[in-house]
Amino acid sequence: MNSNRKIKTWALSATAAAQLAASPAMSQQNDWNFAASLYLFAPETTVGATTPFGPVEGELSFSDAISNLDFAFMGTFEARNARWGFIADYMLNDLSFESDTPRSAFSGLNTEFKTQILNGYVTYRAYASPGVQLDFAAGFRWFDMETKFTLQSGRLPERKTTVQDDWVDPVVGARIGFKISERWSGTVFADYGGFSSGSETWQTLLTANYALNDRWDLRAGYRYLSVDHDIGGIDFSFTQSGPLFGATYRF
Questions:
Q1: Which terminus of the chain has a lower count of CB atoms within 10 Å, N or C?
Q2: Which residues fall within 8 angstroms of residue 2, CB to CB, at 6 or more apart?
Q3: For residue 6, what is the DSSP state?
Q4: CA-wise closest residue to 128 among 85, 86, 92, 168
Q5: Which range, of 10-14, 28-32, 112-116, averages the lowest pLDDT?
Q6: What is the pLDDT of residues 66-92, one digit of tens each?
Q7: Distance CA 171, CA 124 (A)
Q8: Which residue(s) pair with 170 in the sheet?
Q9: What gap in Å lies between CA 245 and CA 27, rounded to an integer?
Q10: How far does CA 18 lie from the centroid of its chain?
């Protein structure tokens, strides 16, 4: 690989999105190897916050996730050189959905939720064998969101509030990759971060991977992501959980 291509690929790795489940089967030679992924995450979503008129919580079921999705982009980039590696995982979601409210004073709750999440990690391969690889990771989760809650009129008139902020949480994690057969493999990833009274986040990811050939893998799995953050005295909470499907190209 010439120097110009190395520089170009390195720049892409700093900004492109990368899936946490990118294949751990990277070369142990002293040379850079890369894996890029696109994937679809269609989860159940719960968004809650304290507001001037009390706590509100919007819920979107898995069965309605696709039909209520206004726009999304999800992708990954991973770079590895011997034991050291870098992962970037990016998700952009624009959702709008309605849910019931336990308060009889309002007829329902409309939630408009726009979020960007960028996970960045430095990884270190602590163990490698033909069948199992173990990586430790340390990095950050950047979260940028704007949520609009509308309590629809009932016995009381309509009320609206907007919660908006962006912040960065440090995170640490680990990933295990294991070979099942010649074409099948699995990946387990978990991380935890925040480390402060006003911010906490964690996630888990499980995938089954099928190698079409030396370059392409198909992936299916399950992801759970949780975020709790204090925004100027407002307790904001966000969870997503559901299936994930994607494809990875290695080069």
A1: C
A2: none
A3: H
A4: 85
A5: 10-14
A6: 777 777 789 999 999 999 999 999 999
A7: 14
A8: 140
A9: 25
A10: 10
